Amino acid sequence: MFEKRTWIRLPRNVVVGHGVLGQTIEAVSELHLTGRPLVVSSPTPHDVAGKRVVAQFEDEGYDPSEIVIEEASFDAVQRVIDHASDIDAGFLLGVGGGKAIDITKMAADDLGLGFVSVPTAASHDGIVSGRGSVPEGDTRHSVAAEPPLAVIADTEVLAEAPWRLTTAGCADIISNYTAVRDWQLAHRLKNVHYSEYAGALSQMTAEMLVESADSIKQGLEESSWIVVKALVSSGVAMSIAGSSRPASGAEHLFSHQLDRLVPDGALHGHQVGVGSIMTEYLHSGQKGKWKDARDALAAIGAPTTADELGIDDETVIEALTTAHQIRDRYTVLGDGMSEEAAIEAATVTGVI
Ligand SMILES: NC(=O)C1=CN([C@@H]2O[C@H](COP(=O)(O)OP(=O)(O)OC[C@H]3O[C@@H](n4cnc5c(N)ncnc54)[C@H](O)[C@@H]3O)[C@@H](O)[C@H]2O)C=CC1
Ligand SMILES: O=C(CO)COP(=O)(O)O
Ligand SMILES: [Zn+2]
């Protein structure tokens, strides 16, 4: 008997391009969201976009409220939930980088309210996904949450963000290669469900980004356009899979572990990029494709070494040898790397 079922949740409106922040009300009103909007952001995104979003709602006769959060934590999610309840919010808009968007996504999910994603940086592929990612103690939670009903990605805003945020977004996409390899490995060894569509979409997204590397240049708004479309595509792959598997393998475990060891370390995308050079080596050996991963990252100006991440060699080795513990996700790291093997992988690939 045929019993397969799937339920793919996707945003209804994905609005990308020059000046689209000015269409926020239009994109939202099409969704029939009612009640008070709550605009959630972090300090800089509040200044570059959050204030404008609030002003637009005021001009249109809504009664918006705002809250600025400083860090990604379950406490921050709770503060947003409490504030939303106090003001009787009708829907939430997350304005900012990955952390502000994840916090808002998770709060809206808990409250059962609509959520709109307004990225101010093309720095990660959570802008569209139905996942929220929050650290807690020794672990990292990647929790299912309703994806945004709408995404409003203004390339004018994204292009004015510090360039390193855009190269981080590129690296988050380039890491899809190793994420998919880990997923396929887990499928073969552990019978983890693998979606051919999600895997192929994720891989193709990385290929298209790498092929466009020559057009991804600082100061070109076109670059934000290319990167944000890749981030949307990667987020859709996660939605199809119903997990972050297509975009998060051992290179992400490595990065999450670095976040614990060095809380104010490097950007998420940059860390996963460097991680993917090493995990590609673990998959395919010295003569394998790790150089392609490194060259693709170097071509867009993303870090390829521990030094460029600003993280010391010992911490990289500690993160590599302990990354498998951070969550129950089978990858090429298996049940852990020995210190000698980690040093070998990091040295051969030039990471340390
Ligand atoms: N839910 C999901 O599927 C995914 C979640 N993530 C999560 O996202 C987070 C990483 O996101 P990031 O954006 O890298 O970090 P982030 O949210 O900390 O932002 C990095 C910095 O950029 C600043 N910033 C943002 N926009 C700016 C602008 N226009 N101008 C000036 N500064 C600006 C922020 O204020 C912050 O200081 C991690 O927690 C990661 O786990 C990443 C990928 C997928
Ligand atoms: O960063 C992500 C995909 O790029 C999300 O992955 P996690 O599930 O590992 O948080
Ligand atoms: Zn990521």
Automatic annotation (TrEMBL):
Documented EC number(s): 1.1.1.261
Q: Which GO terms describe its cellular component?
A: cytoplasm
Keyword Lyase carried by entry: no
Q: What residue stretch is flagged as signal peptide?
A: none
Enumerate the residues binding Zn(2+): D172, H252, H268
Provide the function of this protein: Catalyzes the NAD(P)H-dependent reduction of dihydroxyacetonephosphate (DHAP or glycerone phosphate) to glycerol 1-phosphate (G1P). The G1P thus generated is used as the glycerophosphate backbone of phospholipids in the cellular membranes of Archaea.
Family, per entry:
Belongs to the glycerol-1-phosphate dehydrogenase family.
According to UniProt, the name of this protein is Glycerol-1-phosphate dehydrogenase [NAD(P)+]
Encoding gene per record: egsA
